[in-house]
Amino acid sequence: MTARRVVVTGLGPVSPIGIGKEAFLESLRSGKIGIDRITVFAPDSFRSQIAGAIPEFRCADYVPKSYRKSIKVMARDIELSVAGADQAVRDAGLVTKGINPESPQVDSTRLGVNIGAGLICSDLNELVYALSMAEDADHKFSLAKWGESGMNHLTPLWLLKYLPNMLACHVTIIHDAQAPSNTITCAEASSPLAIGEAYRTIVRNCADVCLCGGFESKVNPMGLIRQDLLNRLTRAHNDCPACAVRPFDVKRSGTAVAEGGSVLTLESLESAQRRNAKIYGELVGVGASFGTVDFVRPEEDGHAMAVAIERALADAKIDAGSVDLVVGFGCGTREHDQAEAKAIHQALGDVRVVSIKGQTGMMGAGTGALDATVALLAISENFIPGTVNCDEVDPACPIQVVRKTTDEKVNTVVTLSYSLNGGQIGALVFKRYEGEGS
Fold this sequence. Notes:
Elements: E1 6-15, E2 18-19, H1 21-30, E3 36-37, E4 50-52, H2 76-92, E5 111-117, H3 124-132, H4 143-150, H5 158-162, H6 166-175, E6 181-184, H7 190-203, E7 209-217, H8 221-229, E8 257-268, H9 269-274, E9 281-290, H10 303-316, E10 325-327, H11 334-348, E11 352-354, H12 357-360, H13 367-381, E12 383-384, E13 400-401, E14 406-407, E15 412-418, E16 424-431
Parallel strand pairs: 4-8, 5-6, 5-7, 10-11, 10-15, 11-13
Antiparallel strand pairs: 1-2, 1-8, 1-9, 3-4, 7-8, 9-16, 12-14, 15-16
Helix pairs in contact: 2-6, 7-13, 10-11
């Protein structure tokens, strides 16, 4: 029996440089930068004071009127996920219950959801009083006191607002997706692994359509502190946010926190053909691996990353020479960029590489899905976006970085995402769809 082919028919980016396919595409072409000084909280006491935040975002604009009361139990990550799914469904031309509650035109039993999520940071204002009630006589946190009185001062629905699986949960409920639903929480590798799970779900004939991708918001005090304590954030460009994140550049000094991600509408080829849907590209390979050398930083030689790429190529049944472009992680830290570049060179040789982190910053679990969206736009729009702020490629990064936007046909693109902690790694292979024989 011939394996089911899986294509992409909808894109739902929600990012610091644009919400929705058209706005995001325009920003990619123009090199727009969405990194700026933090305004959602006072950053003055932090060493890094910049972020890729999404301006003027209203979740209510992307939620059915009958469901808007649920926004009060949505953390920022969940809101972004719901918006991305709305965009991806509409872009695919699907009429789900979330689009038309009275007359949906999708078989809900064949619609699945797979969303990658990160560690959702609680609003500090929701925790401060509860924590203060859990102090012992020495003003230290007491687990016993927390159980006795502290926990009682949390809102009863607090947990539902911050569980990582709630991204997929709300998307599933809104669109009445009754096929397999799953959540992947593997830090920055969450998105490609979730997309891979959706791909396998369709190949196994457990669904015809899957909404998949990932989202995270690190633009909050806890997200900023965590990344700064791990020495991942640049502190040298608070006065020039637009030039802060410099993927693969010899003068790179770290990344910037961000928020966002994307949802992709994956669909069996048969389903897409039946409804004459636009096809952005075909997902042909998924690869995963795990770096075991260190849980704080990547392997210096990038071996585990190379393994993920090689597995994705093997799954796609193509050789390294067929790859036109890599949409890399390229977060702008010295050790991660260097290890990634070595991995790409090891697996693919002298291939062209682009990273958009100079425009968006690093958005954790949402990163890989947004990179996949870049890959599909490169294929469908026949262009390669430039890597913003890479003025001089670091000699220690043995790759060919695309620095200027070019218009040309792109047939095969690999994406690579990995946990900054040095753990899970995911790679995807997308190809141009050119008919049954392609």
